[in-house]
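Morning!

As promised:
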Amino acid sequence: MLPWQTHEGRFVVKVQPIKPRAELFAHGADIGVRGLGPTRATAFEQAGLALMMAVTEPSRVAPQTAVEIQCEAPNDAVLLMDWLNALIYEMSVRRLLFGRFAVVIDGERLIGQAWGEPVNRSRHTPAVEPKGATLTLLKVETRRDGTWVAQCVVDV
Amino acid sequence: MDLSQLKQVSTCEWRHEPQGAMRVPVVLYGSQTLISEMDDKVLKQIDHVASLPGIVDAAYTMPDAHWGYGFPIGGVAAFDPEEGGVVSAGGVGFDISCGVRTLLTGIRSPELRHCQESLADSLFRAIPAGVGSKGAITLDSTEMDHMLLSGARWAVERGFGNPEDLEHIEESGQMSGALPVAVSERARLRQRREMGTLGSGNHYLEVQEVSTVFDNTTAATFGLAEGNIVISIHCGSRGLGHQIGTDFLREMALAAPAEGIHLPDLELAYAPIRSALGERYLGAMRAGINCALANRQIITHLVRGVFAHFFPGVELTTLFDVSHNTCKEENHDVAGNRRRLFVHRKGATRAFGAGHPDLPETFAATGQPVFIGGSMGTMSAIMVGAATRPEHAFASSCHGAGRQLSRHQALKHWRGRKVVDELRKRGIIIKSPSMRGVAEEAPGAYKNSAAVVDAAHEAGLSRKVAGLQPLICIKG
């Protein structure tokens, strides 16, 4: 019996659920951030999480404060850059770190929320300060298995 | 990098002839070892730069070049506005006017070693460094405008330093042509509490000992002697520069199609120098340069406060302050013609030679000091601009050791605490709020700084004057 064949002889397609995940990738002096998920919005949320992974361990960041972010851009790639740059801006002016994200995307418009707390240097031991999201290796696309990928290089 | 695609011109000069869309050749400086170990993407990026409109002569990389965004780090390119030349936000980078200022102390090494530990602690407390740090100064809108227009001169007028400092800073501490109105509200808000802060990443403040003198005459003019202590401050324009880069990179990329600009890669986004967007960027970028100059001036003041406590009566004087992420309008001879060009130096230092009219009188006979940063545990170097004819790379030289491993790879190789302990055994005290940050910046993650300096010397980009060994390093 083949692995995708049932005892009754019927064929079924087993689809593995796409798990959201955040990851960093290598880039010279800077850091690549990548979010993956079943939808564009979850990939963006995970890209936000990856951005924080470049700075600290996100699980150490308590969701004490919520910040709302709105962006609008002519395409997905620039929308991702805007989303990450908005997070960098909020981190900078409010001296916050974030650990949780929620994103809704409607066409060219993104409404997001980021939850976090003020930087605590002894607990968060932040490694680097993100300066800005770049156009380098910037892409938002779907893989053949339906996974959305949102990534770019961040200058640190 | 595959050397077979390059033509070797001399021991430390390699050429990549124009092909495809390239308008000019690429010239790479570096020894065979440095070039062969360089990432292939450096060549790809500088080839793209060589295809930009209005580029003059050649696109260059320095011996410390590595993969960047838009331009490679260690990239130099000049553009003629009269030939459709362009300005690129990615050709300057986010950390506008990041640079190094070196202070002379007159203190001898044994005097400092008596108080090395407590001095390190005091410097770490006094200089805001790392994520979440903030300066003691808050700028309102009016003061922000003054600072953006006047740079280090503004800082000195506010009591942060001496007028003599200004004579030893590029542009005399004040970049002309700044347009504060072109700086966004977001950039201003990011900078409001960041004056006098070091930042993080590869930024540092080091107390160093002059360990080797290569050129006694020039070293004497610079005030350097073996066993003397100097202080080097490496940082830039902080949040303001980062936001200017963010704002204009986006605007240039989105404006390109409407302007009929086809970009081989989005990251190369540019604007014609003679366009409203190009002029606005240049105005904002020059304001960013002033912010960096003011920032290093304030940090100088803070360092002086700490040293006054440990060494009463000792005066810290500024040797020089050089930036390595800029686009500057300069005169250069190209094929026998004097031309006004916009020279991008991204991770590259201006290195004017003796007799250059833009140098302060002190350096008229020697050329300007060029600072090559090491990597916590390795040698930094002071070089001097070489007055070669013709100039090499529009009178530019390298800026640091240059990374050879990504941060990602560095974390797999080193633990921050171990790096700190090993350096301490060698007499180097590291102070940082982040052990992970230290691991990412481990000396082994960088190229051999001595090899980079030797290559710059051999290529005639700049000449070796002195080598510096770190004793204290404050990292963000």
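The domain at 21-155 of chain A is CATH 3.55.10.10 (Archease, Possible Chaperone; Chain: A; domain 1).

Hope this helps with the figure draft.
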